[in-house]
Design brief:
Blueprint (H helix, E strand, L loop, with lengths): L1 E4 L19 E4 L7 H8 L4 E4 L8 H4 L7 E4 L9 H7 L2 E3 L6 H15 L2 H9 L15 E5 L3 H12 L3 E5 L5 H5 L4 E2 L2 H7 L2 E4 L13 H6 L5 E4 L8 H9 L5 E4 L19 E3 L8 H19 L9
Parallel strand pairs: 1-2, 1-3, 3-4, 4-5, 6-7, 6-9, 7-8, 9-10, 10-11, 11-12
Helix pairs in contact: 4-6
Amino acid sequence: MKIAILDDYQGVALSLADWASLDADITVFGEPFADADQAVRELAGYDVIVAMRERTRFPAEVLEQLGDLRLLVSTGPRNAAIDLDAARRLGITVCGTGYSATPTIELTWALILAAVRNLPEEAAALRAGGWQQGLGTGLHGKTLGLLGLGRIGSEVARIGQAFGMTTIAWSQNLTAEKAAEHGVRAVAKDELFAASDVLTIHLVLSRRSRGLVGAPELAAMKSTAILVNTSRGPIVDETALIEALRTNQIGKAAIDVYDVEPLPADHPLRTLPNALATPHIGYVSRDLYETFYGDAVADIIAFRDGGPVRVMG
């Protein structure tokens, strides 16, 4: 069996699971492919591919050129970057792994706290020999707005309430009754953007959510407000966000996800002073990676033995 492990940016995949139990020829790819053509060239001849989340895309035109591929394992229970219909048509089994939203919830609050207390600037100043540089703001009594109140959004709201924040939420299907179950007040979309001191996004990327936060929504926000996105980059119109930051239309953005990943070296979000940007590390934690890779090995063994598990779609 010939196995490719993709996008192991940190070089940790082989140390976090018992890959030796597979008795297979394993190649680890630590860098992203430049494009689909390179992916096809590099992955030719592999029976099994282990993909890290949605870092590498597998549309029909890629899958159709991977004639030896029999099993595609994606970390996590779903992957919008894989064409499942094409995989079924081509006889490629696609399996997922376990998942936990906890690391993303924790990173959301790390970004919020770092943004409101200016932690990157203060830490950099101290390293350079300086001392207190500015005034942070508190969270108690402020309004936390949640764009999406599902599994992650509701937990983010609970933590906000522990800080003494008022919590409000909107999504296209959210009802007042459902919001109230989490101690949150459901509001209209306009009110969510206008009233929030911190607005954090927790939606799945779909046709309905793509570009949902655009120039009109950003213009409605307070000039001191902080926009947080640990969900998916394309939910926010990136061009509109950059303009809003450049003109100080909003106070700050704290962002972990982008339209193009890895983020290009010359991208404005790397240098804008009111952008706190992290490299899509919401799910990047040792505990979750052990689940990802441990389950990936189990998926491969189950497939090899004729009883695939955690089959997607």
